[in-house]
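Bench notes, afternoon.
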Amino acid sequence: MSRITFLRTLVNNGWTIVNRRAVCSKIGKSNFEEIVALAKKKGITGDVFEYQMVKDELLPTKLTDIKSTLLEQSADVRKWGKELRTGDTYCWNSELYGKFKELDSGMENRAIHRGIDDKVKTLAKDKLFDKCKPLGRDEIHYRGEMYFPRGKTLDDYNMLANLKPGDIYEPKTFLWITDNEAYALETYCNPLSFNKNVFYEIFCPAEAKVIQANYGFSSNGMFTEGVYPRTTRLKILNNELKDGILRLRVELLP
């Protein structure tokens, strides 16, 4: 948002110089500036709220409660260490989804990881991510994996099981993901089988480049399927074995 547009939005919401002074005179300039600073840390800025509402809330009798609310960590901060930014305007790069699928013969991740993939197609898929726009908002994504309980895949599973918080994991292959937890968990993890199961919960920042498109319906409406580039780096935040599933909570690094 340009500075002119921002200022125009403030005025349209009633935040004139006179009105700002009226609030300051009511609660004191230092209190006003402290609340503004706390609100900014929460991602709340003057272009969001209308003066008409704020003037009735920023009262001397409510200051303690307002500051406490703004200082309180949200569930997102407690879990991820940061607030999740949400909004309706963001880019899925969905126009590239079909092109990626055309180049992908399915279940190629381990082939790429071991260097026995179709190099021409893999490079063509890499180039699609060069055309991607950043996602545009923070999202939580999910992924499920199954590993055979013997051979090379067991070694891969054990490597994941031994990752510690703070470790950086580089899959070096494309990773299919979804924004629907149940779809990832129920489709790609089966704790009743003899396979080893891994479930990822991924904090994906707005700066990431993801090819993503609407995929199916659930009780919560439409959900997406997407894919990360093979340059993806994941920071381990938590690693635990629960109910027969190795659960990794990770952050995708820009």
